[in-house]
Specification:
elongated; six-stranded antiparallel β-barrel; Rossmann fold; 232 residues; alpha/beta; 35% strand; 11 strands
Protein backbone atom coordinates (compact mmCIF):
# COMPACT_ATOMS: atom_id res chain seq x y z
CA UNK A 1 0.00 0.00 0.00
CA UNK A 2 1.46 3.32 -1.08
CA UNK A 3 1.51 5.99 1.61
CA UNK A 4 0.68 9.63 0.94
CA UNK A 5 3.70 11.91 0.52
CA UNK A 6 4.67 13.92 3.54
CA UNK A 7 3.74 17.59 3.27
CA UNK A 8 6.04 20.50 3.95
CA UNK A 9 4.88 24.13 4.07
CA UNK A 10 7.62 26.52 2.94
CA UNK A 11 6.94 30.16 3.85
CA UNK A 12 9.12 32.90 2.38
CA UNK A 13 8.22 36.28 0.86
CA UNK A 14 10.96 35.76 -1.74
CA UNK A 15 9.24 33.49 -4.25
CA UNK A 16 12.53 32.47 -5.84
CA UNK A 17 13.77 30.71 -2.70
CA UNK A 18 10.75 28.37 -2.37
CA UNK A 19 10.95 27.55 -6.07
CA UNK A 20 14.64 26.71 -5.81
CA UNK A 21 14.03 24.42 -2.84
CA UNK A 22 11.10 22.65 -4.50
CA UNK A 23 13.23 22.12 -7.63
CA UNK A 24 15.75 20.19 -5.54
CA UNK A 25 12.96 17.73 -4.69
CA UNK A 26 11.27 17.57 -8.08
CA UNK A 27 12.13 13.88 -8.65
CA UNK A 28 11.39 12.43 -5.21
CA UNK A 29 10.86 13.26 -1.59
CA UNK A 30 8.21 15.17 0.36
CA UNK A 31 5.52 17.32 -1.24
CA UNK A 32 6.33 21.02 -0.90
CA UNK A 33 3.57 23.59 -0.67
CA UNK A 34 4.67 27.23 -0.76
CA UNK A 35 3.33 30.46 0.71
CA UNK A 36 4.72 33.97 0.29
CA UNK A 37 2.76 35.66 3.09
CA UNK A 38 1.36 34.96 6.54
CA UNK A 39 -2.23 35.10 5.27
CA UNK A 40 -1.49 32.61 2.49
CA UNK A 41 0.24 30.30 4.96
CA UNK A 42 -2.76 30.43 7.32
CA UNK A 43 -5.15 29.55 4.47
CA UNK A 44 -3.08 26.53 3.51
CA UNK A 45 -2.80 25.44 7.12
CA UNK A 46 -6.60 25.21 7.12
CA UNK A 47 -6.53 22.93 4.08
CA UNK A 48 -3.65 20.55 4.81
CA UNK A 49 -2.04 18.66 7.64
CA UNK A 50 1.68 19.43 7.51
CA UNK A 51 4.54 17.26 8.73
CA UNK A 52 7.18 20.00 8.62
CA UNK A 53 7.44 23.78 8.26
CA UNK A 54 10.19 25.86 6.64
CA UNK A 55 9.79 29.46 7.73
CA UNK A 56 11.83 32.52 6.74
CA UNK A 57 12.21 34.32 10.06
CA UNK A 58 12.82 38.03 10.39
CA UNK A 59 12.87 39.35 13.94
CA UNK A 60 12.01 42.84 12.67
CA UNK A 61 8.80 41.42 11.21
CA UNK A 62 6.36 40.68 14.03
CA UNK A 63 4.14 38.74 11.60
CA UNK A 64 6.77 36.01 11.15
CA UNK A 65 7.07 35.52 14.92
CA UNK A 66 3.29 35.49 15.21
CA UNK A 67 3.12 32.81 12.49
CA UNK A 68 5.69 30.74 14.39
CA UNK A 69 3.47 31.00 17.46
CA UNK A 70 0.40 29.86 15.48
CA UNK A 71 2.34 26.89 14.09
CA UNK A 72 3.34 26.02 17.64
CA UNK A 73 -0.32 26.07 18.72
CA UNK A 74 -1.88 24.25 15.75
CA UNK A 75 0.90 21.80 14.88
CA UNK A 76 2.71 21.31 18.21
CA UNK A 77 4.56 18.15 17.13
CA UNK A 78 5.64 19.36 13.68
CA UNK A 79 9.31 20.40 13.50
CA UNK A 80 10.14 23.85 12.13
CA UNK A 81 13.25 24.79 10.15
CA UNK A 82 13.82 28.54 10.48
CA UNK A 83 15.64 30.15 7.57
CA UNK A 84 17.26 33.42 8.59
CA UNK A 85 19.79 35.97 7.43
CA UNK A 86 19.38 37.90 10.66
CA UNK A 87 22.01 40.37 11.76
CA UNK A 88 20.68 40.28 15.32
CA UNK A 89 22.73 38.92 18.16
CA UNK A 90 22.64 35.13 18.09
CA UNK A 91 21.63 34.93 21.76
CA UNK A 92 18.72 37.31 21.16
CA UNK A 93 17.59 35.25 18.20
CA UNK A 94 17.65 32.01 20.19
CA UNK A 95 15.89 33.60 23.13
CA UNK A 96 13.02 35.01 21.08
CA UNK A 97 12.52 31.78 19.15
CA UNK A 98 12.51 29.76 22.36
CA UNK A 99 9.95 32.09 23.90
CA UNK A 100 7.70 31.77 20.84
CA UNK A 101 7.91 28.07 19.97
CA UNK A 102 7.45 26.13 23.18
CA UNK A 103 6.55 22.72 21.75
CA UNK A 104 8.28 20.36 19.35
CA UNK A 105 11.68 20.88 17.76
CA UNK A 106 13.14 23.66 15.66
CA UNK A 107 16.38 24.28 13.75
CA UNK A 108 18.15 27.35 12.42
CA UNK A 109 19.43 27.51 8.84
CA UNK A 110 21.29 30.63 7.73
CA UNK A 111 20.91 32.04 4.21
CA UNK A 112 22.49 31.46 1.79
CA UNK A 113 22.45 27.70 2.30
CA UNK A 114 23.30 24.59 0.35
CA UNK A 115 20.25 22.51 -0.55
CA UNK A 116 22.13 19.29 0.23
CA UNK A 117 22.42 20.56 3.81
CA UNK A 118 18.71 21.34 3.80
CA UNK A 119 17.71 17.92 2.47
CA UNK A 120 19.63 16.19 5.25
CA UNK A 121 17.90 18.38 7.82
CA UNK A 122 14.47 17.85 6.20
CA UNK A 123 14.88 14.08 6.29
CA UNK A 124 16.10 14.21 9.87
CA UNK A 125 12.94 16.09 10.83
CA UNK A 126 10.54 13.91 8.84
CA UNK A 127 12.06 10.58 9.85
CA UNK A 128 12.58 11.63 13.49
CA UNK A 129 16.05 10.13 13.62
CA UNK A 130 15.03 6.64 12.43
CA UNK A 131 17.09 6.88 9.27
CA UNK A 132 20.38 4.99 9.61
CA UNK A 133 22.27 7.31 7.27
CA UNK A 134 20.98 10.86 7.51
CA UNK A 135 23.34 12.02 4.77
CA UNK A 136 21.27 10.22 2.12
CA UNK A 137 17.95 12.01 1.81
CA UNK A 138 16.95 10.71 -1.61
CA UNK A 139 14.63 7.87 -2.64
CA UNK A 140 17.38 5.36 -3.36
CA UNK A 141 21.16 5.00 -3.35
CA UNK A 142 21.18 5.13 -7.16
CA UNK A 143 19.29 8.45 -7.14
CA UNK A 144 21.62 9.81 -4.49
CA UNK A 145 24.79 8.82 -6.34
CA UNK A 146 23.45 10.29 -9.59
CA UNK A 147 22.66 13.62 -7.96
CA UNK A 148 25.86 13.67 -5.93
CA UNK A 149 28.13 13.21 -8.94
CA UNK A 150 26.26 15.21 -11.57
CA UNK A 151 25.27 18.30 -9.65
CA UNK A 152 25.54 20.16 -6.39
CA UNK A 153 22.10 21.37 -5.35
CA UNK A 154 22.00 24.67 -3.53
CA UNK A 155 20.11 27.90 -2.95
CA UNK A 156 22.19 30.99 -3.53
CA UNK A 157 21.44 34.44 -4.91
CA UNK A 158 23.65 35.48 -7.83
CA UNK A 159 23.88 38.32 -10.31
CA UNK A 160 23.82 37.79 -14.07
CA UNK A 161 25.16 40.30 -16.58
CA UNK A 162 23.44 40.11 -19.95
CA UNK A 163 24.83 42.03 -22.91
CA UNK A 164 22.60 43.20 -25.74
CA UNK A 165 22.59 45.78 -28.53
CA UNK A 166 20.36 48.80 -28.12
CA UNK A 167 20.28 52.00 -30.23
CA UNK A 168 23.51 50.89 -31.88
CA UNK A 169 25.39 50.55 -28.61
CA UNK A 170 26.15 47.50 -26.50
CA UNK A 171 24.21 47.52 -23.25
CA UNK A 172 24.62 45.43 -20.13
CA UNK A 173 21.63 44.42 -18.00
CA UNK A 174 22.17 43.25 -14.44
CA UNK A 175 19.72 40.52 -13.40
CA UNK A 176 19.10 38.90 -10.01
CA UNK A 177 18.73 35.10 -10.06
CA UNK A 178 18.67 32.18 -7.64
CA UNK A 179 20.74 29.04 -8.19
CA UNK A 180 19.07 25.65 -8.00
CA UNK A 181 22.10 23.47 -8.82
CA UNK A 182 25.66 23.54 -10.15
CA UNK A 183 27.65 20.98 -12.13
CA UNK A 184 31.06 21.05 -13.81
CA UNK A 185 29.43 22.02 -17.11
CA UNK A 186 26.87 24.59 -16.02
CA UNK A 187 24.14 25.55 -13.62
CA UNK A 188 20.38 25.70 -13.17
CA UNK A 189 18.67 28.86 -12.00
CA UNK A 190 15.38 30.68 -11.66
CA UNK A 191 14.79 34.38 -12.24
CA UNK A 192 12.06 36.89 -13.02
CA UNK A 193 13.99 38.06 -16.09
CA UNK A 194 12.82 36.45 -19.38
CA UNK A 195 16.02 34.68 -20.45
CA UNK A 196 16.20 33.37 -24.00
CA UNK A 197 17.91 30.30 -25.41
CA UNK A 198 21.46 30.92 -26.76
CA UNK A 199 21.69 34.20 -24.80
CA UNK A 200 25.23 34.84 -23.48
CA UNK A 201 25.49 35.64 -19.77
CA UNK A 202 28.23 36.38 -17.26
CA UNK A 203 27.84 35.11 -13.71
CA UNK A 204 29.03 37.50 -11.00
CA UNK A 205 30.09 35.31 -8.12
CA UNK A 206 33.39 34.89 -6.31
CA UNK A 207 33.17 31.10 -6.59
CA UNK A 208 31.79 30.87 -10.12
CA UNK A 209 33.01 33.97 -11.97
CA UNK A 210 32.30 32.38 -15.34
CA UNK A 211 30.61 33.17 -18.61
CA UNK A 212 28.03 30.94 -20.19
CA UNK A 213 25.17 30.63 -22.62
CA UNK A 214 21.53 29.83 -21.91
CA UNK A 215 21.08 26.20 -23.03
CA UNK A 216 17.35 25.91 -22.29
CA UNK A 217 14.59 27.93 -20.70
CA UNK A 218 10.97 27.52 -19.63
CA UNK A 219 8.39 29.90 -18.17
CA UNK A 220 6.76 28.88 -14.90
CA UNK A 221 3.87 30.37 -12.94
CA UNK A 222 3.94 34.12 -12.18
CA UNK A 223 6.15 34.66 -15.24
CA UNK A 224 9.17 33.20 -13.48
CA UNK A 225 11.83 31.80 -15.78
CA UNK A 226 13.66 28.54 -15.08
CA UNK A 227 16.79 28.06 -17.17
CA UNK A 228 19.97 26.08 -17.63
CA UNK A 229 23.26 27.83 -18.36
CA UNK A 230 26.16 26.01 -19.99
CA UNK A 231 29.62 27.30 -19.10
CA UNK A 232 31.75 28.48 -22.02
Amino acid sequence: MQTAPRKVLLIDSEMLIPLAVSQAYRDAGPYFITATSVDEALRKMELFRFDLFLLALNLDDTASLRLLQIIDERFPQAPVILMTNQESEYCELIERIGATKKQGTWYLLEKPFNVDTLTVLVEKCLNKGNQTDGSRPFSSEEDYEKRNHLRDSQVQTIQLFIESLGAGDQQTTQVKATLTDISHGGLGLITRYPLKKSQPVKISNTQLGKTGVVAWTTTMDNHICRAGVQFC
